[in-house]
What does this fold into?
Amino acid sequence: MSPVILGRHEVDHSRLGRSRAAASSSSLPTVSGASVALANSSGAKSSGATASRVNVGRAAALAENTLDRVSDISRQLERAIVQGEYSPGQRLPPERLLSIQFQVSRSVVREALGRLASLGLVESRQGSGTRVTAPNGRQVSLGYERLLREVPERLADLASVRLTLETSIAALAARHRRPEHLRELERLQQILHQPRKSLAAHVKADGDFHATLAEAAGNPFFSLVLAPIHDLLTESRLQTLRRYGASIAWQHHQRILEAIRAQDADEAARAMEEHLTVNSRHLSEIDEEVEAETPIPVETPNHRRKSAGKHVPR
It folds into this structure.
């Protein structure tokens, strides 16, 4: 190719072409290397993120499977206890044997036994293993107590609940009472009839009188139902006995006791109804007095300005 003359500068197109080609050729590896490195880096990050997600998924699946196995084992053991395969006081097989039986780790067995313990079905002691406990209503009572804490109670409302429940208890106690029940009721009446006894002694005797009636009724569910409200019942007795004295309670109890001794269920129910109706009236009077004595906060103009000022943005 003949050179082209541009003023004083001579340009050889063949050299220029070769130079551009060389320059282009020499610059390609640099650009291509950077692109490959970036691609490799992105691929590694993507692969790492995928692996991380897989690991998290596997861990979640493993945890879920473990919880399922714990629930399954605890249900099987609970069923065996409830159906009488293990009697109260009997020791369960050791963790090692249970883990072999259920084909799980000992930690899974240990967690399942922990659930049974939280239900009050078993008790674990160091060195003596895990034993089945005698049935009781403690867990039911705890659940009721938690619910009752959320309810703003009035003691008069409690008396209304007792009216329906304890009239039935009195009637059944008259039918099913035994000599030992009568002796205990008479002993408690002697305590309640002594004015020199302390308020605490009168409250306890009053409560034990009603608890003995529930036992004499012959239905264990009465005691289970009454147990969660034991503290409220004690508070109501404390209020009424402090205010009105123990003589009224003794008179009412004496009428109930005589009906139960005669095994007159109808009279026992009537006597209990009268007793609890008077008790409800007394508690209503106490509640009204407490509400009347509770001061109602008065909002002054200055207090309103301060309260309003707290909400003004600055």
Remarks:
- The chain is about 75% helix and 5% strand.
